[in-house]
Amino acid sequence: MSKLILVRHGQSIWNDRNLFTGWVDIPLSQKGIFEALNAGEKLSKFNIDIVYTSKLARAIQTALIILSKVETQKTPLIIHFNGKMKKWSNYASNIEPIPIIRKKALNERYYGTLQGLNKKEVGLKYGEQQLKLWRRSFDVEPPGGESLKDNLERTLPFFKKKIIPDLDDNKNVLIVAHGNSLRAITKYIENLDEQQIIKVEIPTGTPIVYNYENKIFKDKVIL
Ligand SMILES: O=C(O)[C@H](O)COP(=O)(O)O
């Protein structure tokens, strides 16, 4: 049996200001740093074998803070896949690494021209109903951006191709990502339909743990 742990990054500076963020690469707020530390404390006794994050700083920052709290002799190691960084930085003969793999597939949903706008002001300008459609419908795209369906179509192939095999290999996997990329994964592993996923909210800095055995996700616990 293996474990899958999902964590949405801690609060970012733009979460705090209620701005659409998407792919804008905003770091954690002070509260977000505390949330990440708190998540790390909750996960301190977990034996984490591999970590996946998005390419965005708020997820990477959260993952590194969590790993600073995990009690292990292993060494967190950010994996680089290109050029000299690949050749020169992944050398780790005497250490047992916890590889940290950063992938665009796990990025937040791209919010298009809404990025940087205040969510409340968008609601006042376009109406609450439109705001809700842009934020929580399954397949309505925000202007120039990705719907949850689009997000799911880039996140799930990666999840199935790379992360499921790790779980099948009995590795305990931590994914630190975003509200919508984690909703996409949740839809798949909990077998939710398009109506059910609309209501799912993923809180910041809160570990969600599943046991995985014989291709089945079970025993969900929110820490
Ligand atoms: O990108 C953002 O603004 C948030 O991280 C997620 O926003 P949402 O809850 O409006 O989808």
Automatic annotation (TrEMBL):
Site features described as Transition state stabilizer, chain residue numbers? 178
Q: What class of enzyme is it?
A: isomerase
* UniProt protein name: 2,3-bisphosphoglycerate-dependent phosphoglycerate mutase
Listed CDD domains: HP_PGM_like
Q: Which reaction does it catalyse?
A: (2R)-2-phosphoglycerate = (2R)-3-phosphoglycerate
Gene symbol here is gpmA
Q: Which domain of life is it from?
A: Bacteria
Its taxonomic path starts at:
Bacteria, Pseudomonadati, Campylobacterota, Desulfurellia, Desulfurellales
The entry marks the following residues as binding substrate, namely 8-15, 21-22, 58, 108-111, 119, 135-136, 179-180
Q: Which family does it belong to?
A: Belongs to the phosphoglycerate mutase family. BPG-dependent PGAM subfamily.
InterPro entries (UniProt xref):
His_Pase_superF_clade-1, His_PPase_superfam, PG/BPGM_mutase_AS, Phosphogly_mut1
The UniProt entry's GO biological process terms, in alphabetical order, are:
gluconeogenesis; glycolytic process
Q: Which residues form the active site?
A: 9, 108
Task: Provide the GO MF annotations for this entry.
Answer: phosphoglycerate mutase activity
Question: Keywords of this protein's UniProt record, alphabetized?
Answer: Gluconeogenesis, Glycolysis, Isomerase
